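Could you join me in thinking about how sequence relates to backbone shape in a protein? To get us started, please write out a protein record for me. Would you write everything just below, so we can both look at the same thing?
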Amino acid sequence: MTTKSILQTQQHTLHLFLNNPSTRTPTIVLYVASFGGALHAAVTTFFYLSIGASTLEIGRLGFIMSVGALMGSPMSGWALDKYGPWIPISVTAVCCAVGCLWRGVATSCASLRVSAILLGIGINL
């Protein structure tokens, strides 16, 4: 393929994306949420330590989030086929929002575990 044909293909794909609101809107919402969610990554560990979580507990929170992602993973393909992109992406955004809110108001490691499950499901649904 030539550079010109590659650029034409990318331009065509962008045109299809921008002209399909059922895919465009939830995708843009998810990208904005992901960007906003990444802003706190630099201080998350400090927040966990200030609540009293040990380094082992912080590692467990990462594991719990991975398990939550595994729970949401089998449902994602089925939900996309059954409902289209809007519903699964909306549920993902809600799980991520509630998980982040829950983590933000957490006062104990138990609350952090609940938020990790919600965030894990939201990450991979």
